[in-house]
# Entry
Amino acid sequence: MTPVMAEDWLLEAELAPAVEGDPLAPLYAGAADGLLVLPFCPACGLALELEQRVCDGCATAGADWRPAEPRGTVHAVTVVHRLERGLVRAPGPYPVADVETAGGHRLVLTSVGPLPRPPAIGDAVTIGFRRLGGVAVPAFHPTNLVKRRTPDGRSRDAAAAEAYPGR
# Structure
């Protein structure tokens, strides 16, 4: 079980999803208990997209929401520099990553908390949770922040210090 942060570092509470009647309600219920709960095909067990209703593998309709291993690999990453005052609480740019979970799901997530630098493609992550308003939502945390070099030979820490002043 993964702990859930007390207050979100990134977004204002009014941006929390409405859980009741939401197709992702099983995800939020699991997250509230510190579990990553994701949809699988009830017939063949194939990982389904979050709102997928028919299995690509066997054409079975429906989804079986069950706990999934909370680890994965960064498939793609970007840094968002646009800060919407009154909506975004972050003091500076923040990462958004496409994470492929160990079970085959793909999730677009931001980090559990502020990071000194964004993860790199291929980095291992664990999936924890942010609390947005009263709703726990999945987020990633780098398994280890490996020191890497930029193409010009600077450490990624030095490059991140320029990109994220004041952190």
